[in-house]
Write a structure and sequence with these properties.
The chain is mainly alpha-helical. It folds into 2 domains: 90 residues, Arc Repressor Mutant, subunit A; 148 residues, GntR ligand-binding domain-like (Four Helix Bundle (Hemerythrin (Met), subunit A)). It contains 11 helices and 2 strands. The protein has a two-stranded antiparallel sheet with strand order 1-2. The longest helix has 25 residues. The radius of gyration is 20 Å and the shape is elongated. The relative contact order is 0.13.
């Protein structure tokens, strides 16, 4: 592993706050290490089952301290990309698809996956309240978004806009503006994540798209039935599945 010291690299500029509150990206050295290692795994330079170099070796290679390396490795473990074996070191456990890094926002992979982790908790509770408080108007908006997602799938389009409308409509159905505010603050990350996962699904094939559609349908049916627990579980499962789909290489269907 060889690369230039990270101190020589420019940090990603923060996004514009025009149009509402958004979270600012804070580029950390550990995030850059995370993405460097991820890139090597995706490229095959570090194949599945391969042992990663020792922390001291990576610290010297990247020109950073060992705590920075540890933080990057902790994120990779949390995402299921590597696994640690006591007394042996860290090993590659999962290889994301090459398209994942090609389509992901430059310099934003670590933040994107953090956003998914946060969304599991946030949107699960959003779905719970939406199921309790939804109105017929909310159901019409959700149904329209589902219909547009189905049309995009049939026409081999990405369908990210309809997907985003679905999640925003769930937040609106809570009748709590703070949930909508939280979703707005995450809007850049959510939009990037939805676009990325749907593009990857489009590349894999129809079966993957049908699976994603079915997950949204399950959320809708739970909200429609006032099944709060079911809506929460369906939403949490959907978002976590989307995160795992980004991190798992699958053969494209013919």
């Amino acid at each position: 592993m060889s690369t230039a010291p990270l101190s020589a690299r420019a940090a990603t500029p923060p996004p514009s706050t025009e149009g509402g509150p958004v979270l600012r990206r804070v580029k950390k050295y550990s995030d850059q290490i995370y993405e460097e290692i991820m890139a090597r795994i995706v490229s095959g330079a570090l194949p599945e089952g391969e042992r990663l170099p020792a922390e001291s070796e990576m610290a010297e290679t990247f020109g950073v301290s060992r705590p920075v390396i540890r933080e990057a490795l902790a994120r990779l473990r949390a995402d299921g990309v590597i696994v640690s074996r006591h007394g042996s070191g860290s090993y590659v456990q999962r290889k994301p698809a090459v398209d994942f890094l090609q389509l992901a926002p430059i310099g934003g992979v670590a933040d994107l996956l953090r956003a998914y982790e946060y969304r599991v908790a946030l949107e699960g509770e959003v779905a719970w309240l939406a199921a309790e408080r939804r109105t017929e108007t909310d159901l019409r908006l959700l149904s329209a978004a589902l219909k547009d997602m189905r049309a995009a799938m049939d026409e081999r389009r990405v369908g990210a806009e309809a997907d985003l409308r679905f999640h925003r409509a769930i937040a609106a159905a809570t009748k709590n503006p703070l949930f909508e505010f939280s979703m707005q603050a995450l809007s850049e990350y959510i939009a990037e994540g939805v676009a990325l996962t749907r593009k990857l699904s489009l590349k894999v094939g129809r079966a993957r798209l049908e699976l994603v559609q079915a997950e949204h349908e399950r959320i809708y049916q739970a909200v429609r039935a006032h099944d709060s627990a079911g809506a929460r579980e369906a939403m949490r499962s959907h978002i976590d599945n989307a995160r795992l789909r980004m991190l798992t290489e699958e053969p494209q269907q013919g």
